[in-house]
Automatic annotation (TrEMBL):
This is Tartronate semialdehyde reductase. Belongs to the HIBADH-related family. GO terms for biological process: organic acid catabolic process. Residues 301-410 form the PilZ domain. It comes from Paenibacillus piri. Residues 3-162 form the 6-phosphogluconate dehydrogenase NADP-binding domain. Residues 165-284 form the 3-hydroxyisobutyrate dehydrogenase-like NAD-binding domain. PANTHER family: 3-HYDROXYISOBUTYRATE DEHYDROGENASE-LIKE 1, MITOCHONDRIAL-RELATED.
Length: 413
């Protein structure tokens, strides 16, 4: 059996190393927090004090780390494995990193006659524990085949994709789909929750038709059971989405769904959910609709919008359409008086029209950009004085802007 050095014993790395030990490989492990390495000693692992120490006499070196910086430091940094690897060794990086990082490591190790494979995985902690991960591999085909017994000890499938960086490109595309599928699950559950429909019955429908997905099977139970223990953390998903955005930018490829998903996960990170499972993103939706997903609301509750009374002065730029195909505008004073999950209400003495667009300028202290809204309801204000109360729907609002608005308004309560 091959001698393996395994660097990085986090959520995924630890069970992957454990499976190698159970399959009879000689494994030396390294982790920045040594207690995780010590936990594998009963299975037969040797513990190294540095990455460089771990790779001595190893035929294969596996890294499973959190981001590009960690991988680059472990391989090329001071005390990194590049200083001690020998011709004929193979380095396998199972981390999710940018293709540029994979290609940089491939080139650096090739100078030392060392093979490098970028081999990120599909699956999360349960699949890692069960040894059924799938590896998407870029680099030398011969090297990938030589390492097949190592891959098969940790997973059920090896898919060779081509030259260095191919595995990393595929992983970012895969995780883009995972994030979008996760949000589709959460949005569907949010809709039925607001409608008062039993979430478990709804999931039976989903799992019987075209809306079903692996993410539904893996995450719906965690959502309904309020189990946000991390199988794959929200902050790591966001890291991958940001890397995917870099790739689509380099390709000049429009990716509206990727960008929307990235914005929502940025909001989740802003809410402090980064270390929880990516399914914790449901808590953003629950805050927006003032309900817990899976909670059965009564008809009265479904129709009632929880409102927060406010008194925030605003400047409004009112835009009107001219027959010549242009806009004219004027600036008026207004007051933000109500906020709910369905929009905002503004009071002003200036008469506006239905479907008119206004640009809302918050006080300078809010440090908010102008926000566009459409007038969808007009009422006389109960306080009198010839004022009007306008129900406005926010349009084209970036998720991070919504979060900043909510934070600012909370500071005024």
């Amino acid at each position: 059996m091959k001698k393996i050095a395994f660097i990085g014993l986090g959520t995924m790395g630890k069970p992957m190393a454990a499976n190698l030990l159970k399959k009879g490989f000689a494994v030396t492990v390294y982790n920045r927090s040594p207690e995780k390495a010590v936990e594998l000693v009963p299975l037969g692992a040797a513990v190294a004090g540095t990455p460089a120490e771990a790779v001595q006499d190893a035929e294969a070196v596996i890294t499973m780390l959190s981001n590009d910086a960690a991988v680059l430091d472990a391989v090329l940094g001071s005390g990194g494995i590049a200083q001690v690897v020998q011709p004929g060794q193979t380095v396998i990086d199972c981390s999710t990193v940018s293709p540029e990082t994979s290609q940089q490591l491939h080139a650096a190790l090739a100078e030392r006659a060392v093979e490098f494979l970028d081999a990120p995985v599909t699956g999360s902690k349960p699949q890692a524990e069960a040894g059924i991960l799938a590896f998407m591999v870029g680099g030398s085909h011969a090297a990938a085949e030589n390492m097949r017994p190592v891959f098969e000890a940790m997973g059920s499938k090896l898919i060779y994709l081509g030259q260095s960086g191919s595995g990393s490109y595929a992983k970012l595309a895969n995780n883009t789909m995972v994030a979008i599928n996760a949000l589709s699950l959460v949005e569907g559950l949010s809709i039925v929750t607001k409608a008062g429909i039993d979430a478990e019955q709804f999931l039976q429908i989903v799992q019987s038709g075209g809306a079903n997905s692996r993410i539904t099977e893996m995450k719906s139970g965690k959502i309904l059971n309020r189990d946000f223990s991390s199988q794959f953390s929200l902050q790591l998903m966001l890291k991958d989405l940001l890397l995917a955005n870099r790739v689509t930018g380099q390709f000049q490829l429009p990716s509206p769904m990727l960008k929307a998903a990235t914005g929502v996960f940025q909001m989740g990170l802003g809410k402090g959910l980064g270390e929880e499972d990516l399914s914790a993103i449901v808590q953003c939706y629950e805050e927006w609709m003032n309900m817990q997903v899976g909670h059965k609301a009564s008809g009265l509750e479904r129709r009632r919008s929880t409102r927060v009374q406010l008194d925030i002065p605003l400047h409004l730029t009112v835009h009107q359409w001219e027959q010549e195909g242009s806009f004219t505008g004027q600036t008026i004073e207004g007051t933000l008086v109500d906020l709910s999950d369905s929009g905002i209400q503004i009071v002003s003495s200036i008469p506006l029209s239905m479907d008119m667009f206004v640009v809302i300028h918050f006080p300078q202290e809010a440090e908010l950009p102008p926000v566009t809204a459409r007038v969808i309801r007009i009422e006389s204000d109960s306080s009198g004085g010839g004022k009007f109360r306008y129900g406005c729907m926010l349009s084209g609002l970036a998720p991070y802007v919504r979060l900043k608005i909510e934070t600012y308004i909370e500071s005024k309560l």
